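Example 5.3 — CDP-diacylglycerol--glycerol-3-phosphate 3-phosphatidyltransferase
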Amino acid sequence: MNLPNRITLARIFMIPLMLVFLLVDIDAAWWSYAIEIGDYSLPLNQLIAALIFIIAASTDGIDGYIARKHNLVTNLGKLLDPLADKLLVASVLIALAAMGKCDAWIAIVIIAREFAVTGLREVALLEGSVIAASNWGKAKTITQIVAISALLLNNFPFVWLNVPFDVILIWLAALITIYSGIDYFVKNKSVLNFSKM
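Solution (predicted structure tokens):
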């Protein structure tokens, strides 16, 4: 297994670790410790989960860059990389919804879009074509990562400016996600040839 695929697998293995820090209530003094600066408060376990998420999300660009630069692109990598991205985003959104930090409908819309576009790509592969990532798809990914990071960090540092940056950005991420999904289907409608079904 080459280096890019190992990095991708590491991203997948970071997901359950992140969820433990986010969702499991451990009876330990350090676990419930909160970083407090004025009115701002962030539990230590949530900070650790946020750092794991940020590291995991950043590995997405790293593994792709290494694979392209050193000609290490493999079929396994093509399968694992988007799967890892979707697992990471879906799991943290579900956790944030369970914690009351994100509206459940936003999590559902984003996850549903990921399934729909993945299905479209699979149909395209069966037809012998590949659907490349669009600029809207890239914007969607970046917005989601920044929005989720802001939610995990309890709107740091915008909490001191009284700006609900985390809420604004997760709504923006949902809108871009919806638009990018529609964009994929409109531009690739020829893939969905219903006359063959």
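Remark. Strands lie at 34-37, 40-43.
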